[in-house]
Amino acid sequence: MKIQYHLLHKEKDTGARRGKIETNHGTYDTPMFMPVGTRATVKMLTPEELEDCHAGIILANTYHCWLRPGEDLISKAGGLHKFMNYHGPILTDSGGFQVFSLAKPKDITEEGVHFKSHIDGAKLFLTPEKSIEIQNKLDSDIAMSFDECPPASASREYMQKSVERTLRWAKRGKDVHKNENQSLFGIIQGGPYEDIRKFSAIETVKMDFDGYSIGGVANDGESKEDMYKAIIYSTPYIPEDKTRYLMGVGEPMDIIEGVIRGIDIFDCVLPTRIARHGNAFTHHGKINLKNAKYKEDFTPIEDTCDCYTCKNYTKAYIRHLVTSDEALGGRLLSIHNIRFLIKLTEDIRKAIEEDRLLTFRDAFQKEYEHTK
């Protein structure tokens, strides 16, 4: 079945939405944070650990799964869910973000994108049709349209042409989408330009996708103000009965501000990436466990956290692990960071239900920006 979004409550003072997403692998509450499993695995964690973190939808990366082990092998295994033993819903990105980071502007054509494999330098060519074909075989619950993700610094002229091409690519991808049990999302682009975002949103919605994503945010050089404007410029044109997905955003304050502006789901590699460098989210901001002051700190990362890590280990022990290059340190911090962001969205949902999200935002921000 295609995913269904059910709006349960809209906060009276903001654009925040409390809802549910019904998928082939269960029904989940929104707003939601989605952990990223780039190579059909959330780095260092088992599916059972993700479930213990109360994860719902997780991501897998089309580009990486295409190169290794290949979409045909995953299809032969029974699709991503069986291959990686994850029982919840999975979203696959289009592969576009990785492709454009590897391609040069001259390699982007109307037909698709030429680029070289990051593994062995082999010449590759990815088209909208190929991206959808790969995702059909991966059999994720949600597939993403193939789009160009221009840098925030792109000129107005380039951004307009890029959006027009992305719209043509979206139609081409939709025309070849054959997996009847897989939903397909359209992606709204346009950088910081209000009129281009509006054009992209209106024209993408005309194609009647199963959900809609706001792309091109959290790019290098983009200000927080431009990120929030991109949301404001896009969401008014997305139907209320469709899921709204802000791509690549995982900073706690950005999640809260995104929800205030009408976003339902978020994803980001941030919680596991910073964990591998010894960092942890806390309600007082990010902390670095490599810091010498934690050497004899025999308390959990946060007393109030209900994650496996905080219930069983101290900062001193985790510091020992990360300074000794023990992989367990990154694992324990990844569990905590993912649970932190998922718990944040749980708290956000409660605040929306009680029409107090702005009060929640102000209190969280005041504490989060306090330096320990």
What characteristics describe this protein?
372 residues, 3-stranded antiparallel sheet, globular, alpha/beta, 15 helices, 8-stranded parallel barrel, TIM Barrel, 15 strands, 2 domains
Brief rundown of the structure:
The chain has 372 residues and is α/β, with parallel strands linked by helices. The protein is built from 15 helices and 15 strands.
Description:
With 372 residues, this protein is α/β, with parallel strands linked by helices. The chain has 2 domains: 4-268, Queuine tRNA-ribosyltransferase-like (TIM Barrel, Alpha-Beta Barrel); 269-372, no CATH class. The protein contains 15 helices and 15 strands. An 8-stranded parallel β-barrel has the order 4-5-6-9-10-11-12-13, surrounded by 6 helices. A 3-stranded antiparallel sheet has the order 1-2-3. Strands 7-8 form a two-stranded antiparallel ribbon. Strand 4, helix 1 and strand 5 (58-60) form a beta-alpha-beta unit. Helix 7 (156-176) runs parallel beside helix 8 (194-206) and helix 8 packs across helix 9 (224-234). The longest helix is centred in the last third of the chain and has 27 residues, at 327-353. The relative contact order is 0.13.
